[in-house]
Amino acid sequence: MSSSDEMVPAQPHTPTPGDPASSTAAARWREIASTHTDEVAICTPESSITFGRAAALVEAQARAIAAFIDDPARPVAVDIECDVDSVVAMLSVVCSGHPLVPLDPFLPADRRAHILRLSDAIHLGPGDIAALPPAAAPAPEPAPEDPAVLIFTSGSTGTPKGVVLSQKMQPNHAQDGRDFMELGRGDRAAVLLPLSFGGGLDGMSMSLLNGATMHLWDVRRRTAVGLRDWLDAEQVTTVHCTPSLLRSWLGELAGENTVDSVRLLSTCGEPSYGGDIELFRTKLAPQGTFCVWAGASEVGDLAFNVFGPDREVPTGVLGAGRPATDKQIRVIDENDYDVAAGSIGEVIVESAHIALRYHGDPEMTARRFSRIDDGRTRYRTGDLGRFDESGRLQLLGRGDDAIKIRGYLVEPLEVEAAVRELPWTVDAAVTADRDAARLAAYIAIDPAKWSPSTAEIRKELGKSLAAWMIPQDIVVVAEIPRNERGKVDRAALPTPPPPSTPEPPRGLTERGLHMLWCEVLGLESVGRNDDFFALGGDSLAAATMVTEVREHLQVEVTTAMLNEGPTIAEFAASIETASKERSKNATGATIVQLRPGTGRPIFLIAGAGSLGTSLTPLARALDTDRPVVAIQARGIEKRARADRSVRKAAARAVSDIRSVQPDGPYQIGGYSLGGFLAVEAAAQLARDGQACDEVIVLDSVIDPILADRLRAGRFGLLSRLPFRRSSLSSADEVLPDRTGDENPTPKAPLPARVLQQVGQRVLVHLSGLVRLPPVLQWVVFFNLGTRMIRRHRPSPYSGAITVVRARTNTDGPELWGFFTTGPVRTVDIDADHNSMIRVPHVSQTAGAMESVLGKTPAASGVG
């Protein structure tokens, strides 16, 4: 039993049920206490008190306060702990007619002094109130519009404001508890919120003013150790806490921890997420109800979103839900007009049960509060929100938090929801710097898991966020700092490094690296002298980047070279040096032996702009002992004039093939442009009386211009007309793989994105004759290949072909009927155009090829 139980009880005031006085907090308490006399009102691990005993103490102390303080309007500040004495003291002040100023013991000294100075309150502890001289005269009965509580906002982003709450607000909160949580007599409600804050005060009203027993566990002093067992022992039916406490508490529990008596858990104070519901159902109450409870000091309860055990759990931030009792919520535009469902605007609340004003700040009160014709008050929240089609409210954060990035309006709360979905995240906060148009994400990582690099975090966020929504600054921290109310303490967040003005790349190789680094690191821009690892690159990102350079440019570079020169400028110089060495040692041959073997060779023709060695992963993945020989474009390595048509390039390929294997049958295949060359080479060999096995075409995409000409009538009159200028003008563009109207266009290979326009016509005309930087060399030969495909006229070929298609290729098999009169077979694999010849997806491509190679003997026809 608490020390308060030892006091001499006074005769409680008992209003007549249903009279106007019951619309005040004081009257509602007295009414409930008089009808629940022998039932437990407040329970802590140390003590408990019945409604009857508490009512007697409250009545005596209310009289003493009223007699002790001459000015009936002067507030009384009370130090509030999570114990019986503090609750009795709070009720005593409210019933005395004086405004209550709840003081939290965890507040910094200067914050407490500021509140006392601003409120001009008399500071009394629960013990001081209990020791006041007794008084015989009853306390004055407060009116519904009289101030009941002067509560101060957390001040996490500025100076705390005092909000004046009326006597009629707490009975309204009690009504919300009945309407949305079904709180009432017989419930045992565990309020795990500090009672000195708005959420805790509302939790007290919802439980006590509905006749439920309020169970108090001071998490800040006790921690959550033993909390689950206490809930079970007390057979608690409802639990009320913040989302951050829920995650911290339940996230640390292992094994079976359900509490059968718990039917409902509510969260308030900060956004809740779908993962919070899953945590609650998994760890505490599988068949329980989860309630999101949104509100603010100025409006009290705003909305409730109730998730029964069978309701589907959404991902991301949970909506605020249905408007609270007597709360009309509107979403308006900048002209104060209501917006349609789904549209974003400022949230406006109209009600008879919202705060009276800001204490001592008439200007702020006039900006936010206004009386409307029906006697209610309108409050402008400053929050952004929208209604969904079902009429549920979604809150999107403060209006002044929204930020425009690259012309798009971004809500930090939406970004934070994506950050919280990351597999490493324990806690997170996203802030916006409006002046710099930058977002900063702070991520607390589970210490039991490995810590990701910022590059990896950006890459993962790119799967769910648009590029402009990915925070420019990502800071990994041990924990997110929070103030005494459990809200993010933004002032304590570490300051991200100031943004620098990146020095732009110089030259084509640096431009290619710049594009690749931005892609790998998940950044919008990188300076040529910025350090790869300082930008968030780790060993995985380094390996990815080096692999891209090797495969696109066919230059042997290593991660060691990146470590020695970790900037774009330094690494580009290393690439240029390696490229010169390769050119110096190049033979100029168009034949490249990929792997030795026995029997008939397999000839593979490389794609446009690629060296024959780009097919090495495919050669190695083939389950065969046969030799594999690659054929590459003339002039791509050693200076020589490149072939300008598919037929001419195919004729050169035939010459190369017959220099290795004089007579057929031949096994020929080709990747991308090489597929067209392979089919044309097979046709030319057939005309010379040489047999070919089934030709393998690896994702050779038929350009739309060529496809239109083919469909026009197998090169009839239309095919002999000059190309339309609109078609020719696009010939200088590097086209990505055509994927059809309904599918997204895949990202073009890196070099093809470097320069879309820089004298391409001239460079293509000189392809092979002029030595170019490696990136530009790739672009020029790629564009030459595009022109060759567009101008190609297929020769009649009577053999069979197999077309292996990547998932981004939507060419119909009928188009290949224009290339052969023989059968056409298609094989689809789950990879894109580039990854199909790279590890690990190359194994699928090799498997498709082996289905063809297995049809023919490997040893016949070798010259």
Topology record:
Blueprint: H1 25-35, E1 40-43, E2 48-50, H2 51-68, E3 76-79, H3 84-96, E4 100-103, H4 109-119, E5 122-124, H5 126-130, E6 147-152, E7 162-166, H6 169-181, E8 188-191, H7 198-208, E9 213-216, H8 219-222, H9 227-233, E10 238-241, H10 243-251, E11 264-267, H11 274-283, E12 289-296, E13 300-307, E14 322-323, E15 328-332, E16 345-351, E17 357-358, H12 362-368, E18 369-371, E19 377-387, E20 393-398, E21 403-405, E22 408-410, H13 412-420, E23 425-433, E24 438-445, H14 454-461, E25 473-477, H15 507-521, H16 539-553, H17 559-564, H18 568-585, E26 591-595, E27 602-605, H19 616-621, E28 628-631, H20 646-660, E29 667-671, H21 673-687, E30 695-698, H22 704-711, H23 717-720, H24 725-729, H25 760-765, H26 774-791, E31 801-805, E32 824-828, H27 842-853
Parallel strand pairs: 1-9, 3-4, 3-5, 8-9, 8-10, 10-11, 11-12, 24-25, 27-28, 27-29, 29-30, 30-31, 31-32
Antiparallel strand pairs: 1-2, 6-7, 7-17, 12-13, 13-14, 15-16, 16-19, 18-19, 19-20, 21-22, 23-24, 26-28
Helix pairs in contact: 1-2, 1-3, 2-3, 6-7, 10-11, 15-16, 15-18, 20-21
